Amino acid sequence: MADSTMSDADKVREATPAPDAHLADISKIRAKRLAKLGGAQSNGSSSASLAPNGTATQSSAATPQSTATSPPPQQSTKAPTEPKPSQFSQLGMKQEQEKKAATPIKVRPRPASPAKRNSDGAERPRSQREPENLETWQDRNLRSIFRVTLRPEEVKDAHGHPLLFLGSTRQDLNDENAPFLLNNTVLEGAITEAASQAPGGKPFEYLLACFKRISRGIRGTKYSGADDPKRDILKETRRLCMSYCVFAVTMPEMFGENVPSTNPLVDHLLSDPECDSGICTDFLDEASTRMDEDESISTALVGAAEDLSRRLATVDMNGDYQSYVRGLMNLIRYPKIVEAITHSSMWAPADVEPQDIETKTLLGPFFRLSPMQLEVAQSYFSAPRTRDRNFITSAQNAVRLTLRNHQLLLFQIARSIAGSNAQCKEAMLDWFALCVNKNHKKRAMRVDYKTVSGDGFMVNVTVVLDQLCEPFMDASFSKIDKIDVDYLRRKPRVDISDETKINADQKAADEFYARPAEGTSGFTSEIFFLTVAAHHYGTEAAQTRMATMKKSVKRYEQDLETFEADRHKYLNDPRYLARFEEHVSKIKQQVDDMHSTIHATNGVLLDDLNQARSMQFMRLVIVWLLRLASRQNLPKSGELHLPLPADQPDVFRCLPEYFLEDIVENFKFITRNIPHIMTPQQCDEIIQICVAFLRNTEYVKNPGVKSGLVTILFFGVQPMHNSKTGMLGDLLIGSPFAHKHLLHALMRFYIEAESTGTHTQFYDKFNIRFEIFQVIKCIWANTMYRENLAREAAINTDFFVQFVNMIVNDVTFVLDESLSSFTKIHELTKELASAAFSALSEDERKEKTELLEDQKGKAKSYMGLTRESMETLILFTETLPEAFTMPEIVQRLADMLDYNLDIMVGDKRTNLRVDNADEYKFNPRALLTDIVKVFINLSGRARFVQAIAKDGRSYKPDNFTKAADLMRNKVYMSPLEIQTWTQLGDRVALVKAEEEEEEADLGEPPEEFMDPLMADLMTDPVILPISRQVVDRSTIRSHLLSDPNDPFNRTPLKIADVLPDDELRGRIQAWRAERLAVKRAEKEGGGGGGGGVAAVGGGGGGEAMDTSQG
Predict the structure, then answer these.
(1) Are 538 and 459 in contact (CB under 8 A)?
(2) Does residue 59 carry a pLDDT above 90?
């Protein structure tokens, strides 16, 4: 028979099933569907199947094809069986069957292949395949899996794959007189020999492909039962193959001299797991299962992860970084592999430098990837100075989308590692702690960015930590109790030893933390404190650097303009011109690089999703801090009660300052740039913390943090979109909490801002007060605030007088500076236009020009403050005129108003004329109107009228007349206001005449009755306790409002410490009464009766003169 002449190898090959065995099942399904449509097939026909190449073949029951010399096959003479009627014909209704017979659908099956015949025409009997024994099956499968052969003449298998000839294995079998069949006894030697001949000298690649074929074979083989030896043979084969895969990684020299320089696993981890060269799930499953029994597997996988990380350290987002991330994610799906990786020496080395964390730790290169890297920023924002806003916005959107997807993968990596087991969770926390603890210098005054981690790296760390906090950031903060207040006293991962504390010096903080707390801290506390620190060194540091870069780029652009202006100096000398061009080109590149980095950083930081998550975390920090400071069970206890306790909790005082600083910086950035993402609940809580710590400023040591709270409110009330009062304005106007505490909090910090303790405190106070003015203007629409202000003035008089004094001081200063600047601008402009200016030397002309520019800058700055200061003064004098006419305030206020009125309407008003007044936002008419309104608001107060009359330097009756003319002809004030103004001028003139008469009557007072500071006659003398000097009470009260020291010896002094000098006051009163009585008698005796001055209150439109002390 034909099969008796076949070799064993031929039999095995013939018995080898097609690789796509499942196609036979498809054929069966197809046949069943045909049967349903057209009836059962003929018993004599065979069902069709698909060959491996996809062509239709006959079933195994068909006779094999004849050789080439056989005649062509003949059609079978047996008629096919008539198909049965289609079953669908039985689904119709009976009435329709009566009308028309149903026509069955006839589907004729393909006729069976004709039987093969001999040369004489006789039908050749069908061959019957002999059953395959286990040894033959094992040999066939092993040769197919490893694509090897023991016959030198075989070079390819049935599918055309090259075969590796195992000469040594054949010789071993021959020496043992064993059949040339592969089995598990000789398999190890066969694997070694085959891998040594691996194509391209890549034994691991060859063995990985073999492993995949084994895995497919295990799944695809049909077993006779649970004890089928075939399963054990294949599993043992896979075990050996895995072992040799590991050898190819850890001991590649055993397969030849061509030893790879890198871990060969890495190249395959970078490939798609579903492709032939990728590391599949089966491989990692097997590796993970055997890690406990074979340490070399752990070594191989950890080495691959390390090499993967090292390679990624040289790649940025312009390259194929996704394959590295995918490779790591494939590894960390297995807890045992994760545990092995966290034991790597690259995981979190204690001696790593801050700048090397992102390249020399295992996770560093993955977190390093960011568009904020210079090369990537240059790619997204090429030629940034030539791009329009639309291009920049589009590129920033692309940056955000790309980074957001990557950050999601980073979060999945961190979560997978932390979720593997307790040990891995600790290792993940250790790595995060390394990132924040090593980067304290990122918040130094002057940062050397070569010695710290990159901003992109730290921002990614922060974003991932924010996401890890989401499980305990629910809207009601139901898990806030899990954040342990004693965490920092239990050997915390977060190093705060060199951090400035909220309100404690280093000694007090060290003593507090020297008392350790008992117990252990949970994961919630660990991740909470790490995230707060990460915000400080991550996103907040990036915001700070971006602001610094914006200043730097302006300076570089100014330098570039200066250099370009000097180009003509080098045109005649090619050598110097080349150097000049090189230097200019270098500056241009630096400017472009900074612009690109700024655009990229802005794009990253303005991510709505990340910032919304960040705000939710900061909301949690706010509530947690208020719980500590207030000792209230917030948010369960309801509304926060103020003021805060006088005794500050140590646990709050000794917290790192960045707990508050992070909140301030985060919300300043949000309210300034993307306020629309804030929710009403977040707005409520930000108002609470701003008001709480401005109301109790003693709780916070750093004035910069406190001023930041004001800045948040300031940006929160700026108009946006359809809201004139911004995100916070409506809440501030309508919030009962704000009604109770906001105004007092703003006034308190307004006073405190006078001395911030910084070298820029003089300018800082004006910026702070400008922002406070804007908030007050926003809330002034609610009359409740005005009522509260009146109540504050009545109850807390000293505090309110101090506040009013600061307002008067500021208005006085900014008015003087702005109007003086305009006078100097007028003079310098006139001088530069004169012929004398041309006669000056170049240096003198340059000096004059620079002085003019300096004055213009000052005028712009101070004019803005002047408008806001005057508007605030108008608001307060209208609401509480009595507060501004207190003895210690009223004279300085009147002097200031008189002085500026004289400048505006007097003989020197022409000096205020400047070109391009709009450039400085200087409107003389508007400023005069503001000054007049303050006069009118206080016109009903007798003490104010007396103070104007008493001003011997600037008060001029003609100024009131000139101002009235301007009000009628140019300023266009209302008739009622003009009438009130005229009446005020008349009343002041009467009082002035009376005071001059009285002064003449009194003559020269004794020296001991005169105030040593003001040179006026004292009315209420007091003795200063230490210097023992005698001054008038109003004088020392006015002095102490601005300076808390004795003016004579600079010792600390409070108004409550002064001693009334009743004896001296009595003598002064007696002397005064005596002198006036004498003069009155002289006038009456001389017939001068009736010549006295008319009543002060007469002739005016206001109330009668108020001589009381109120």
Answers:
(1) yes
(2) no
